[in-house]
Amino acid sequence: MTTPIRYELIKTDKQTGARLGVVHTPHGSFETPTFMPVGTLATVKTMSPEDLESMGANIILSNTYHLWLRPGEDIIKEAGGLHKFMNWDGAILTDSGGFQVFSLSDMRKITEEGVHFRNHLNGEKLFLSPEKAMQIQNDLGSDIMMAFDECPPYPATHEYMKQSVERTSRWAERCLAAHARPDVQGLFGIIQGGEYEDLRKQSAQDLISLDLPGYAVGGLSVGEPKDVMNRVLEFTTPLMPSNKPRYLMGVGSPDSLIDGAIRGIDMFDCVLPTRIARNGTCMTSSGRLVVRNAKYARDFGPIDENCDCHVCRNYTRAYIRHLIKCNETFGFRLTTYHNLYFLLKLMEQVRQAIREDRLGDFKEEFFEQYGLNKPDAKNF
Ligand SMILES: [Zn+2]
Questions:
Q1: What percent of the chain has pLDDT over 90?
Q2: Which residues belong to the active site?
Q3: Average pLDDT of the residues of the chain
Q4: In the chain, at which end, N or C, are there fewer CB atoms within 10 A of the end residue's CB?
Q5: Any known ligand binding at 331?
């Protein structure tokens, strides 16, 4: 059977080993390493598909759990799938719903069959299983679907994590068996195992035996320190097939994107740039900037003088601060656009550095300018 998702390796960076590649999907191809903006409810909050296209996004992520509850996957299927429903012709990745079940719901019970929990909106009893997660994602029609997994909190004991990894492997087999459209939608497996090397190895081996078209590293960016994440990636990515895309879930701070790419990751997603944008915080080439702060009230310069996005070319910090202070939607649009553009541009710079075998140098320069070499540096 031909897979709908194909990875092509272009080259590796001589300084770091980072990969430059292309992922081909039924809705176009994109170069990697790349960042995927998150459109939880079939919209990247405040952005139109035209905005996303203009900033160079060619794959976005949407959340199975949220779309299952509202408007319901049956309505999206009836619309002709998620691409048609939201008028987005690029690639779409959907998560399995697992992470939301574990993070949003506190009334949950995990069984071999699946997870019983309560709807975070109205308390209604719900049940999500590998089969149900596949049926919803098949109805949504995403290009890349994620296997239903358990994402245990950090820290978890070795004993608990081992049971969880084994269950996640059994659930992945059930996902593959239930996948109704393998010719047009690619199913990715999620390697779990927390910070334990033996369990990451076991998880990778189990999932790789299913010969899925791509693999993700899950269970990171859940509260562990950065050095733990980097260490886990260092022993996990070498376990992953080199001829398939590698996706690090839920990571989106500039330093983690660079550190992840250096450790062989191709795809990233995170709500960070869009979420902080709605709080009036911007990512800039010299670090984060809280544009809602009073000191910008009379600052008529752009958010980032080194950014060539349409927001930085046309609007001032003073204006954007004013809009955000007044809760004007347009202000959130402007900061969101800039932050996404900034990360997409960063990934373009990372790809260019790999092309020129200088990602190690690029990292040094970027960290220095972003203020990440200071001992009290923030994550973004
Ligand atoms: Zn900008």
A1: 91
A2: 95, 269
A3: 96
A4: N
A5: no
